[in-house]
Design a protein that fits this description.
The protein is an alpha+beta fold. It is built from eight helices and four strands; from the N terminus they run H-H-H-H-E-H-H-E-E-E-H-H. The protein is 42% helix and 10% strand. The chain binds FE2/S2 (inorganic) cluster (FES). FE2/S2 (inorganic) cluster binds next to helix 5.
């Protein structure tokens, strides 16, 4: 069946599009792709991307280009939880490779595969701008920083048991937080 946004999403989209001139509808592409991924099974199939292109009067290739550039858009089905582990720069220097190896062995998957229980997919991603707390990964909208095997054990076990993850960002460790606060003279 062809993807079709729900009435409420379409009304949000119309509100969004009203912010842009008619010839600049492409500016709404990123939010539309997020909505599409959320509404159509957690990933962007070719049919979904074509549908978004049609809504924005774009050529499908314009949508494919953007969707394939950003790692937050999944082009194939994923597990319920997508562990996006940074593999570049400071994360690589701080053990990302062995962390990725540990996570995939613990879950029993290869990169981009869905675990047999349908719960997990592990992805390797580029810098997530939290280099000061390397190695780190993103889980949904949450950053999980200063990864250790023990922390991974705890997170995966809790997710398996359907527990909430109350991992608040640690301001002391967050380079983003420090940048926002500005340099202290003290
Ligand atoms: S290198 Fe991993 S967050 Fe920047």
């Amino acid at each position: 069946m062809n993807p079709t946004f729900s009435e409420s999403t379409l009304s949000n989209i119309n509100r969004l599009l009203s912010r842009y001139p008619a010839d600049k509808r492409k500016s709404a592409l990123l939010p539309l792709l997020h909505m599409a991924q959320a509404e159509f099974g957690g990933y962007l199939s070719p049919e979904t991307m074509d549908y978004v292109a049609q809504l924005l009067t774009l050529r499908p290739i314009e949508v494919y280009e953007v969707a394939s550039f950003y790692t937050m858009f999944h082009k194939q089905p994923t597990g319920k939880y997508v562990l996006e582990v940074c593999r570049t720069g400071p994360c690589a220097l701080n053990g990302a490779e062995s962390i990725i190896d540990y996570i995939t062995r613990k879950i029993g998957v290869t990169i981009n595969e869905i675990s047999s229980d349908g719960l997990f997919t592990v992805k390797e991603v580029e810098c997530l701008a939290s280099c000061g707390t390397a190695p780190m990964m993103q889980l949904g909208e949450r950053y999980i920083e200063n990864l250790t095997e023990q922390k991974i054990d705890d997170i995966i076990d809790r997710l398996k048991h359907g527990e909430r993850l109350d991992i608040e960002p640690n301001p002391e460790n967050s380079i983003l937080f420090r940048s926002c606060q500005g340099q202290s003279n003290g």
